[in-house]
Amino acid sequence: MEGVMMRGKKAIAVAVRREDGSISTVVEPLDPLFTGKLREIPFVRGITVLTEALIVGVRSIMVSAREYAGPEEKITGLYFWGAMAVGLGLAVGLFFVLPLVIVQFFDAFLSSSFLSNLIEGLVRLGLFVAYLFSVSFMRDIRRVFAYHGAEHKVVNAHEAGATLEVASVREYSTAHKRCGTGFILVVLLLSIIVFALLGRPSMPFRIASRIVFIPVIAAAGYEFIRFAAGHSAARLIRMLLAPGLALQAMTTRQPDDGQIEVALTAFKRVLAEDEGGSAVWSPESGAAVATPLAGVEET
Questions:
Q1: What CA–CA distance (Å, rounded) separates 100 from 123?
Q2: Which one, 5, 170, 205, 274, has the greatest CB density within 10 A?
Q3: Percent of the chain with pLDDT over 70
Q4: Tell me: the pLDDT tens digits for 231-285?
Q5: What does the mean pLDDT of the chain come to?
Q6: CB under 8 Å, gap of 24 or more: what pairs does 199-205 form?
Q7: Residue (of 150, 170, 203) closest to 17 by Cα position
Q8: Which residues contact 125 (CB under 8 A, 6 or more apart)?
Q9: How far is 70 from 188, CA to CA, in rounded Å?
């Protein structure tokens, strides 16, 4: 919602362009669950990251909506958990249950359980791409995708050692090898392999298995993305990453300078937090109150 969330080692920062043109920054300390030992254990850390992405992602959307609309906007905890439950339900139903329902119409003509699972996986992948393609025509989503592109440009510039100013950041790519879009694609492709090994049991079991195995597949997908990001110079790894990078052409747009400025504001804030800033938890608002940090401009 007219903003960017950046995650640092100690906190997250959400920078939002308000209706009056100013930039509001909200800082929230990361829960120790997402920064502790669990994040260091292979495969377990993938589930931890997935849980963090869901919780922090929904919270950031709600914070940005509140900041964009103004302080009078009230968002309760019930709304937060309700929104997360509805979002998860729609995602599981659309991308994991619906493909099973569709492939059921073909099962009577398929003697191979492997072929049945392969078709299911391809339907799932097709639904995902079709979903991204469809929502990209929505004006508000196009702006969200432009902010996504701004986020990637800033991170790419930082990793290249460039000056964190709008003019220099503008030159960098909107694609990034550790993007969540690529992660989702890896999960969808891995699911084809995993579910093919389960054969073709009864429909209730197939539906239950798709739900139960999501965290397991996500954990394996995270390990692949983590490994690939650290070895992206290898030709084989670049080839494996290429589909995810190509898919980002649908989930990112070229941002304008104002959107890059918002992404820079969020990024500089988490850098400052990692270097010794502070984020004070506010139980009344459910967010953190940003405290002034030297060298970081805020409006």
A1: 9
A2: 5
A3: 89
A4: 888 998 899 889 999 999 999 999 999 999 999 999 999 998 888 744 333 323 3
A5: 84
A6: 199/113, 200/107, 200/113, 200/116, 200/117, 203/100, 203/104
A7: 150
A8: 188, 189, 192
A9: 38
Q: Is 292 exposed, middle or buried (0-12, 13-18, 19+ CB in 10 A)?
A: exposed
Over the stretch 126-183, which tens digit does the pLDDT of each residue have? 999 999 999 999 998 999 999 999 999 999 999 999 999 999 999 999 999 888 888 8
Residue type, 105: F
What are the strands of the beta sheet with 11-17, ordered from one edge? 3-7, 11-17, 23-29
Write the single-letter amino acid at 197.
L
- Residues 110, 116: contact at Cβ < 8 Å? yes
CA distance 9 to 279: 12
Residue 132, SS3 per DSSP = helix
Predicted structure pTM score: 0.83
Q: Which residues contact 38 (CB under 8 A, 6 or more apart)?
A: 44, 45, 48
Q: Is 170 helix (H, G, I), strand (E, B) or coil?
A: coil
